[in-house]
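Teaching soon. Got one?

===
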Amino acid sequence: MRPFIFGTLFVVVILNWLWPLPLALPVKLAAIILIVGAALFHQWSRLSSGSVFAPEMPRPVVILFNWAFGALMFVTVGQIMVDIVAALVALVQWHGIVIGTIPRVAIGGLAALLSALGVWNAVRVPPVRHETVSIKGLAPAFDGYRIAQLTDLHITQVFPRRWAEEVVSRTNAIGADLIVVTGDFIDGSVAMRRDDVAPLAQLAAPDGLMACPGNHEYFFDYREWMQHIGTLGFHMLLNTHRLITRNGASLVVAGVTDHSAASHGEAKPNLAAALAGRPEGAPVILLDHQPGGAREAAAQGVALQLSGHTHGGMIYGLDRMVARGNNGFVSRRYEIGAMTLYVSNGTGIWPGFALRLGRPSEITCFHLKSARSLARKG
């Protein structure tokens, strides 16, 4: 798939967009070198670290690569659209249409601007988003209970220690009762990321920190990461659950492993095991990195599922394609029978495609309300 994408970028951008511009040949040749270099961003990432998922280059360089790669993508889309329109006009008028310099310059300028905006939206420290969720059977002791969700942090050169520190500060300021992370803490080995993830140990909530793994944890020394994340104060929920009790009432927080686990020789997600032995009648909050299995969770009586993985689809329009790979779930809130599914757009994003347009990052705070209390207010 990647060779096809790179080939499309090369052909459309070089032949259809760059070459017809009235530029000197040396300038065009230099531009071609830059275009090819930007399109091979993921190959440079692999050379820098051994993995396409962890570009071990200085942060400004990785951000510049993301901007250039995004600009190439937007130029490709823009030029194809202009070519299609020109072809339709030519067909209607029955004579050829020459696409002039001004449209090409406009495509390039707009592509550069959109990519810059997309990268800025992706790498910023996200704002806090508040969601109120009605939970059937929620005990009065938990009415107003607050859960802060982080997900898809992808702590890397793009999201380093100082970014993590700001995320921790903003999350702690919420004053949530419980903080959860629904996977994809990192990209890179423990040795590579040890210092960058250290600020997560400063996250604090009365009922502690709980988490489930994402698919990216399996790409980098999964067992070592599970142990290290535990030393940061997290209770890793690997097909298991924990109870939170107040005034004799219980709230179940369950978590499952990621759907990619089996392909890495690890335990695949097992919702039945995660829920086994839970107190009868106690509402269940499920942490599952990928949202695709939400209908099964709803059938098993889960009240609220918190997921990530999709990054919200990253770009408005592209989100429809991402949804198709996740059983239709891609961004934010869905009601599935009596269960609420929330698919966070993500706190960070994979540094190999760090662009966001119309799908902003977030730190999410959930305010739990009993169905009875909401009914009374209504």
About this structure: Confidence is low (pLDDT under 50) at residues 373-378. The radius of gyration is 23 Å. Residues 59-93 form the longest helix (35 residues).
